[in-house]
Give the backbone structure.
Amino acid sequence: MSIDRLHMELGERGYDILIGSGLLDQTGALMAPVMRGKRAFVVTDDQVGPFYLERVLTSLDKAGISHDHTEISHGEYSKDFAHLEALVDSMLDARCERSTMIVALGGGVVGDLTGFAAAILQRGVDFVQIPTTLLAQVDSSVGGKTGINTKKGKNLVGAFHQPRLVLADISVLDSLPRRQVLAGYAEVIKYGCIDDADFFTWLEANGDKVIDGDITARRYAVAISCRAKARIVAADEREGGIRALLNLGHTFGHALEAETGYGDEILHGEAVALGMIMAFRLSARMGLAPAADVIRLETHLDRLGLPVRLSKQRHWDVQRLVQHMAGDKKVKDGKITFVLAHGIGKSFLTPDVPEQAVHDMLSEFIGA
Ligand SMILES: NC(=O)c1ccc[n+]([C@@H]2O[C@H](COP(=O)([O-])OP(=O)(O)OC[C@H]3O[C@@H](n4cnc5c(N)ncnc54)[C@H](O)[C@@H]3O)[C@@H](O)[C@H]2O)c1
Ligand SMILES: O=C(O)C(=O)C[C@@H](O)[C@H](O)[C@H](O)COP(=O)(O)O
Ligand SMILES: [Zn+2]
């Protein structure tokens, strides 16, 4: 079985991103070289655990790594202070030491929460990401952003804490519900929109294969996405500049997630899909992007089954969305830095966006 090996070029914080099928059964052997000791603490959720925990624990046994584990409740609700406290307590109860390797086995929720717990436990212990959703394999497991949501907004408390290794086993995506695959696909198409028009074109031709489970197409999409993310993060680890391009669609998307209470109504990836459409519509409204590219993006997302309009079941309020956006981490001196685009594959950052243009775009989108 072949493994694609990418490297996150961050000097002493650098690490490999391994992509392949069946990696789960080699977890212990693949982790051992980056471990400081012979103990691991595995965190998963109550939907991933029944599928994959036993295989990971068996591979740790085979590699002579002793282990404890815990399961959190699945879903975005778990990314909060209460679950963080409970998770850190369970690590302390298990007498995790500074040399214990923390393992995040799950989607972005498990990865973000566990990574943050690892960042603060005993002032920082090592962790490994084993992403089990498409979203986590192409995005959240790579780059070291960890954290939780608070009442004031999305991911507002957290730490940059890079994993020691990422193991992306493509075959685990076979058990992922279609809605979750589609949500992850939004972050895949994001890389095409940011600076890779050729990838966008490839996705227009092959996106349905990625969604429907073609292993070669999935592996290619994960590898290209991780390569893009690793390149951007290596250039700007702590988001002083170009890393913010990875936030395309997120200023609007996070506002939708906050407004809907971080539940099942809008998943993160779905919010990003809608947010990217809003970013492109705003760009076109400001005369920066061709309308044809907005249509191209909407048509592609719509054809694959992602939401491209806001639900009519809910009353959306422009002012409330703008208030959520005001808490964005890209706000500087009271002004939001937006990720806009001159077209597909031509995204850029700018604080120069008239408030009226944002209001008009949001009003139009809510009414659409
Ligand atoms: N740190 C980052 O850079 C970064 C990047 C993107 C997103 N995120 C965060 O990631 C989170 C979203 O992650 P997500 O989309 O993976 O959601 P998730 O972690 O909630 O997983 C989605 C659902 O799928 C289930 N699941 C996971 N893997 C499965 C599998 N293989 N088979 C069957 N079911 C499975 C989970 O139990 C969960 O119910 C958000 O909180 C978002 O903010 C972080
Ligand atoms: O890694 C990044 O940088 C990203 O922005 C990736 C995003 O897909 C991800 O959702 C991230 O968690 C958003 O970061 P935030 O700083 O806006 O909370
Ligand atoms: Zn995201």
The domain at 178-367 is CATH 1.20.1090.10 (Dehydroquinate synthase-like, alpha domain).
